[in-house]
Amino acid sequence: MPELTQPTDDEARALARQLIDDARFAALAVNEAGTGLPLVSRVAMGTTPEGRPVTLISGLAHHTKALIDDPRCSLLLGEPGEKGDPLTHPRLTLMGHMTFLRHGDTGRDDLAAHYLQSHPKSKLYIDFPDFRFALFQVGKAYLNGGFARAYTLTAEDLGL
Questions:
Q1: pTM higher than 0.85 for the full model?
Q2: Contact between residue 152 and residue 137 where contact means Cβ atoms under 8 Å apart
Q3: What pLDDT, on a 0 to 100 scale, did the predictor assign at position 36?
Q4: What share of the chain is helix, strand, coil (3-state, %, to 5)?
């Protein structure tokens, strides 16, 4: 079988980084607690000041319980445009694991202030006691930049 991905180049790195920086939501895939079955949720997406993907999630959500049980997960970023075949639009799958930053943890208040700049409506619930930041640690990534434009990327390729 032929190699499915192209050699990673600066154009692929820049497109992947743009997808991370522009994302305001993502599909989060986890292994459901207790069953290990795949579970996908839509989550709000942002980045830390250093550019690391981050989301704010409730401890009451199924995906949070799953991440506590098994922190391995994936994020799918990128949305189809208004016209054309959805499969021709770029998308990025990030694979890795989540760590949590809770109320009282060092750096939580600074991250909250930063997050609110891009997600001002989260001010309504950001201080609820069950909410925490989930910080995504990238292991590797797959970029589909459109037809015949597939790449495998590392955390280093993404500047992480």
A1: yes
A2: no
A3: 85
A4: 25, 35, 40
